[in-house]
Design goal:
The complex is a heterodimer of chains A (about 325) and B (about 525). Chain A contains eleven helices and eight strands. Chain B has about 525 residues and is α+β, with helices and mostly antiparallel strands. In chain B, the strands form three sheets. In chain B, strands 6, 7, 13, 14, 15, 16, 17, 18 and 21 form a nine-stranded mixed β-sheet that branches. In chain B, strands 2, 3, 9, 10, 11, 12, 19 and 20 form an eight-stranded mixed β-sheet that branches. Strand 3 of chain A pairs antiparallel with strand 1 of chain B. Bound molecules: flavin-adenine dinucleotide (FAD) and S-adenosylmethionine. Chain B: This is Ubiquinone biosynthesis monooxygenase COQ6, mitochondrial.
């Protein structure tokens, strides 16, 4: 399966050259999207009836016979979407361009909140030195690599095997990022292994998971008591629909159509409540706003479209987890 | 359970350790042919090549300023940096003699440059060596129709600028760098760049796993690490790898040419003669007079010495270079006094201008200062050098893992002494962008990061280039009516305080754009 996806995305018909295709109206785009993705990934045959279940499901332990429904947050259709465009993670003008452009802004938020929370020197070039950090849903490692350069000991996981391969190869070319531990896994699998991290970061993933509440609970379970949990996503507001989905997916063509499904988006209130329920109290939340003139993102109070939340895992929540991830 | 998962640290400990240093071989799938040559060459060398964060090609004023700024900021001081330049001046480790005859290559540094030098801790070294502040400036032209005097008082400053020999600026940066670094000898490579090899355009090509094995066994970890870096071959046979190459190698930049970055520009049909002259008294003002063939500037450099930058046709410059020193001094004094035309004085035009501008409701107290004649030169004390003048602007300042600074990115008409100030502006901006990148964990050679530097500097440099080019055109054409316009411009500058202020501010580097303060 993996092979096939690789081969087909390498064929000249695909890549980024536009294949003329019947146009889809935005209304249709709100329907489940995986078929469109799968068709990009699987063959050059024009639109077909929905192909069989998407390629490259994760090969985690959960698939190998011990049975437990540990992949509750996994949405196969979503996973297929990302598998189909995995090759393009590091093309800074490709489908993941928004993540590249947004990266310095979201990292500056993470840097400042983590420096404050863990009492690190904000002028240090490696302020996260000694902190165990996990990047959940790391994709090609766009966030994981800077975290490693900032000194963190990074573990990065993604449900798509191909993403993990691309991320590992990319990171290997720089000694400072070569130490990142990349695994094809879901958050639930690591919870089962009782892995713990000082900071758990999951950016632009929650809108793609099957069950956001369970996902939040997994993120919390991976965080040491008093540790940090950082989540970013897109708001479910009319403005988010207008900007993030219509503009980004249909007009600017930044994102492949169907990257986001309206009904799966999470509002800031919902996120705070879900994290709260999972014993993480959100202490800071900011929005990202895009300035089309400068082409840059900046932090803002406006959380109506893109936003990021920093929370702290309650300390009384579980003492059985053991506190010794690596703090101090 | 863990064992069954496809889990690997990116460095893949199974990659076998470095056997031989042939770092340049690309990762799997990439063509190897071009790399054979250096594989062979390096096989005999014991030490593996140095791997750097930042390689600065050219240790002139601007290259040293970048190095100094990087070594001075907490976020960037850890970066492994090298300066590549065979210039023997980089061997200096002490102050230059204040009592020697001043060098003829000098720069007029603006307050913006001075504050940059202060920030990076290099200004105190300038102060220990020869430099000359000036608080007055007089600009006039040969037609006798107009003149203008600028005074630092008008903009509430203590001085308008400072004239410093280029070698003093370089030496001060070098001394500061020595203070900041554990061992400066490890940072300066006294050699020249021969060639640059950039990583394959699309790393995707090398990345697409040909087999299901993602990390190619058979390549060393070092090979893998270097496949994404720029390779620099040096004239002493050494080679380096770097995440970022900074081209600070002057207007004929090798780096720019190797990276095939295109330029726009033209040569002015003019050359500049530069030299040092002596007076009997100390000169405390910067003088510039526009002659039919171009401007002549007389800049104070301290100890009764002044620097001359005189623009003229190439033939004239040859003649002035070869004439006897006595004849040359006579010619300079002539050009700065009655040569080519009368002194400007209050004329009908002056009166008209006064009326015209008084209507604009200018309330600022612009004092009309009297025209003065510059102090006479009594001898020429240095070699006379002639340079052809050119304007050049690079289409791009950056590409992946590359940034150009200073004359490598742009040369301007030396008219307003802005050349190196723009270069120092580049150095400050680039260092700041690199620090911002480090703070958010970016790769220092990342193109999106470097583009922020380009965006910041291009606008400023293009504006200044255009202004100076416009000036050059305006002052090198000798048409009657134009002279009046030009004189009016002088008068305008003399009379309208806000405009004058904005011209001074712009020339001093405080402002981004001259006409929209
Ligand atoms: C006649 C004249 C008068 C001027 N007057 C003024 C003035 O009054 N005020 C002002 O601000 N500016 C003036 N300028 C401009 C000013 O001199 C330049 O802007 C300034 O020198 C640029 O500095 P730089 O470091 O970019 O380049 P440069 O000073 O040219 O330094 C380049 C360095 O790179 C090195 N190099 C080159 N190739 C290689 C290689 N392949 N490998 C390794 N090293 C290499 C060289 O050895 C040199 O040290 C004047 C210029 C001229 C021509
Ligand atoms: C929009 S990308 C975000 C990538 C990365 N976090 C970033 O911001 O740069 C979403 C990623 O989440 C992954 N993903 C989706 N559902 C997941 C799940 N349940 N568990 C782990 N990863 C998942 C996808 O494979 C995809 O790589």
């Amino acid at each position: 399966m993996l092979r096939r996806a690789l081969l087909s995305s390498a064929s000249p018909l695909h890549g980024r050259a536009r294949i003329p295709r019947p146009s889809h109206s935005p209304i249709q785009a709100l329907l489940p999207q995986w078929s469109r993705y799968a068709s990009v990934a699987s063959s050059s045959v024009p639109p077909q009836p929905p192909p069989p279940p998407p390629p490259s499901p994760p090969r985690g332990p959960s698939r190998s016979g011990d049975g437990g429904p540990t992949v509750s947050s996994l949405n196969p259709a979503e996973v297929a979407k990302f598998a189909s465009i995995a090759e393009t993670w590091w093309d800074s003008s490709g489908p993941f361009k928004p993540l590249h452009v947004m990266n310095p802004t979201r990292l500056s938020f993470i840097r400042s909140t983590l420096c404050r929370h863990f009492r690190r020197d904000p002028n240090s070039s490696k302020p996260l030195e000694g902190l165990k950090v996990i990047d959940v849903g790391c994709g090609g490692g766009i966030l994981s690599e800077p975290l490693a350069r900032m000194g963190a000991t990074v573990t990065a996981i993604d449900a798509v095997d191909k993403n993990i391969k691309i991320a590992s190869i990319h990171a290997a070319s720089d000694p400072t990022t070569a130490s990142i531990e990349y695994c094809c896994a879901t958050a639930e699998e690591l919870v089962k292994e009782k892995r713990l991290f000082d900071a758990v970061i999951s950016l632009e993933v929650i809108e793609h998971v099957a069950n956001p509440l369970e996902f939040c609970e997994s993120l919390s379970a991976l965080t040491v008591p008093n540790g940090a949990t950082v989540v970013s996503t897109i708001n479910r507001s009319m403005r988010a629909y207008a900007t993030a989905i219509v503009a980004a997916e249909y007009i600017l063509r930044w994102l492949p159509r169907g990257t986001h499904e309206w009904s799966k988006l999470v509002t800031p209130e919902e996120l705070v409540l879900m994290l709260q329920k999972a014993s993480v109290s959100v202490e800071e939340m900011v929005g990202f706003v895009y300035n089309p003139l400068s082409g840059e993102w900046s932090l803002s109070d406006d959380i109506s479209v893109n936003y990021i939340a920093f929370g702290v895992k309650k300390s009384e929540a579980s003492s059985t987890n053991g506190r010794e991830a690596s703090l101090s | 359970m863990l064992s069954r998962r496809r889990c690997f640290a990116a460095a893949a400990s199974r990659i076998r350790p470095l056997a031989r240093a042939f770092c340049g071989a690309p990762a799997s799938g990439a063509p190897r042919s071009q790399d054979h040559s250096h594989t062979k060459k390096v096989a005999g060398v014991k030490a593996p090549p140095d791997v750097l964060d930042v390689a600065i090609v050219g240790g002139g004023m601007v290259g040293l300023a970048v190095a100094c700024a990087l070594s001075n900021m907490p976020l960037t001081k850890h970066l492994k940096t090298a300066i590549i330049d065979s210039n023997p001046a980089l061997k200096s480790r002490g102050y230059l003699d204040k009592n020697s005859t001043p060098d003829s290559r000098v720069s007029t540094v603006t307050p913006a440059t001075i504050s940059f030098f202060r920030d990076i801790g290099a200004w105190e070294h300038v102060q220990q060596q020869r430099h000359a502040f000036f608080g007055k400036m007089q600009v006039w032209d040969y037609t006798g129709l107009g003149y203008t005097r600028y005074n630092a008082r008008d903009v509430g400053k203590k001085y308008l600028g400072c004239v410093v020999e280029n070698k003093v600026l370089c030496n001060s940066l070098l001394l500061r760098l020595k203070e900041e670094l554990d061992d400066i000898e490890n940072v300066i490579y006294p050699t020249r760049l021969v060639s640059l090899t950039f990583p394959l355009k699309s790393r995707q090509a090398g990345m697409k796993p040909a087999s299901s094995e993602p990390l190619s066994i058979g390549h060393t970890t070092e090979e893998l690490h270097c496949s994404n870096l720029v390779k620099l071959d040096l004239s002493d046979g050494r080679m380096l790898y770097s995440k970022l190459v900074i081209g600070a190698d002057g207007s004929k930049s090798n780096v720019r040419q190797i990276a095939s970055i295109k330029t726009t520009g033209w040569n002015y049909p003019q050359s500049a003669i530069i030299c040092t002259v002596e007076h009997v008294v100390e000169n405390d003002c910067a003088w510039q007079r526009f002659l039919p063939s171009g401007p002549i500037a007389l800049l104070p450099i301290g100890n009764n010495f002044s620097n001359i930058v005189w623009t003229m046709s190439p033939e004239e410059s040859l003649r002035h270079k070869s004439m006897s020193p006595e004849e040359f001094v006579k010619s300079v004094n002539h050009a700065l006094d009655f040569g080519y035309g009368p002194h400007p004085r209050s004329t009908a035009l002056d009166h008209y201008m006064e009326q015209f501008f008084s209507g604009i409701g200018n309330t600022a107290t612009s004092t009309k200062e009297c025209f003065e004649v510059p102090p006479k030169a009594t001898g020429v004390v240095s070699e006379r050098m002639a340079f052809p003048l050119s304007l050049m602007h690079s289409h791009d300042y950056v590409s992946k893992r590359l940034a150009l600074v200073g004359d490598a990115a742009h040369t301007v008409h030396p008219l307003a002494g802005q050349g190196v100030n723009l270069g120092f502006g580049d150095a400050a901006a680039l260092a700041k962008v690199i620090a911002e990148g480090v703070s958010v964990g970016s790769d220092v050679g990342d193109l999106t990061l470097l583009q922020r530097y380009e965006k910041d500097r291009k606008a400023a440099n293009v504006a200044m280039t255009a202004v100076l080019d416009g000036f050059q055109k305006m002052y090198s054409v000798d048409f009657g009516p134009l002279n009046i316009v030009r004189a009016a411009a002088f008068h305008g500058a003399q009379y309208i305080s806000p405009l004058k202020k904005s011209i001074i501010s712009y020339a001093m580097g405080d402002k981004k754009w001259p006409l929209f303060p």
